[in-house]
Amino acid sequence: MFDTLTDKLGSVLNKLTRRGALTEGDVQAAMREVRIALLEADVALSVVKDFIAKVSEKAVGEAVVKSVTPGQMVVKIVHDELVAMLGGDPNDPGLGLSLDSAGLDLAAPAPVPVLMVGLQGSGKTTTSAKIAHRLQTKEKKRVLMVSLDTYRPAAQEQLAILGQQVNVVTLPIVAGQKPLEIAKRGLNEARTGVFDVVIFDTAGRLTIDETMMTEVGAVRDLIKPHETLLVTDAMIGQDAVTTAQAFNEKVAITGIVLTRVDGDARGGAALSMRAVTGKPIKLMGVGEKTDALEVFHPARIAGRILGMGDVVSLVEKAISNVDHEKAEKLAARMQEGKFDLNDMLSQLQQIQRMGDMKGILGMIPGLGNALKQVKDSQLDPKTFKRLEAIIQSMTPKERRVPDIIKASRKQRIATGSGTSVAEVNKLLKQHQQMETMMKRMKKMGGMGALAGMMSGGGGLGGLLGGGASLPRPGGPPIGRR
User: Fold this and answer.
1) What CATH number is attached to the domain comprising 178?
2) DSSP string covering 62-123, please?
3) Among 272, 289, 331, 266, CA closest to 87
4) Is residue 93 part of a domain?
5) What is the pLDDT, as a whole number, of residue 127?
6) One domain, residues 394 and 337
7) CATH classification of the domain holding 432
8) Domain assignment of residue 98, yes or no
9) CA dihedral 294, 298, 299, 303 (to 10 degrees)
10) pLDDT (tens digit, 9 = 90+) per residue, 302-347?
11) Domain range for residue 128?
């Protein structure tokens, strides 16, 4: 998400930071480019005008002109206004938020009713299951899911199947019941079954119509939801903003969940919605898996947009997905200078568990330019799967002692993994480089050579392609001489 906007804003702001002094003309020219970048990213015109006016007013002020680094001051102003536009406090980067925070307001007597609304195809049903899964696993809440969609074929069955997949209880289906009857039965079941939260998944339409809004309004009046979440597809751009306005006027939403965020390179919907509706974006769907749901932190998102990274989210992702016992064992072996193909396999699996590689790299400050150097094909999850398949086609002894892998063994491994001998050779070379790096780290007392892990010769650079070298944040590439 925001790839296009990040590239364009980065280019504009980099020009400012390279200058020793800034004139009012420099700032105005930069703001014109920022304005175009925001409009091309599908941000609403009214939001763009307000943003540019606020930034321009502060960017030509005395504090910027007299600053030692005026370009950096302008970047900070742009960052702070982005945070404010997204609904956050620029002075609170969101570092104090709990990892297990579901991003929802559940401070109400149990069972807390949560109403899911939105157009058909926006991802309401899948999002309902993702939220229920998150509440149940991270917040230890007992959740009941209720489908009120009696119009879309097999919609109720879909929620039931998702419930089984995430181990969340769903209300049994009774053929012929109307949405209000189902809602009333769902409330009673949630109370008698001692559930903490009950999620109501409503029906959607292809477009907003009076019938749908009347029905949603009646359900809302019956269940009196503590949270009314609008689920909307980030990829539909300005239409998402229009949808948000309509639902907010009719049913008074309390928050927004953006879906398919990982497929939207522009991000205009996210930047516009809070400003236009006044309602916060609470969650965002970043993939198809049941755990691919993130709390929306304005300060962190602003950092990603401006290429500043998002270390806090990266650490949280690692904490949630990494097998700590395996990681500790691997770290101990690395400190001893040991690194066989079993260790390499473990590292590959840990990386894949964290999710989309491009998204992970984007959270590391200063690696925005590095992403451009690494081809998209090298960030494809299939690349990691192929490497994993090669190692898993080896015998236990071959993984422990790679030196015994000669021509005939390479051919057998290539055939078994569905790859080529050339790919097997490439993986063995990458392993050899990484093993050399581990031994070098041991001699240097541990972490002294860690920077080299980011080079093309070993570590992440080697795994991605064996050729691209990743630059130091703000500096030239390392790893090549």
Assistant:
1) 3.40.50.300
2) HHHHTSSSHHHHHHHHHHHHHHHHTT--TT--STTS-TT--SS---SSSSEEEEEE--TTSS
3) 272
4) no
5) 92
6) yes
7) 1.10.260.30
8) no
9) 80
10) 776 776 544 444 544 555 555 556 666 666 666 666 778 888 887 7
11) 112-307
Residue 480 one-letter amino acid: R
Task: Say if residue 40 is in the same domain as residue 119.
Answer: no
The pTM of the full predicted model, rounded to 2 decimals, is 0.64
Report d(CA 73, CA 91) in Å as an integer.
15
What pLDDT shows up at residue 425?
A: 92
267 and 295, same domain (yes or no): yes
- The bridge status of strand 169-170 relative to strand 255-259 is unpaired
* CA proximity to 144, closest of 185, 225, 199: 199
Which residues are CB-neighbours of 378 under 8 A, at least 6 positions away? 464, 465, 468
What pLDDT is attached to residue 455? 39
Report the amino acid identity of residue 49.
K
Please check whether residues 303 and 352 belong to one and the same domain: no
**Tell me, what's the pLDDT at 409?**
93
pLDDT of the residue at 225: 93
Coil, strand or helix at 255: strand
Name the token pair of 24.
Answer: 């009012």
255-259/227-233 β-pairing: parallel
Gap between the Cα atoms of 435 and 344, Å rounded: 9
Q: Could you give phi then psi for residue 144, rounded to 5 degrees? A: -115, 135
Residues of the chain with pLDDT under 70: 1-4, 18-22, 61-71, 89-102, 263-267, 304, 307-337, 351-381, 441-481
Element (H, E) at 25: helix 24-40
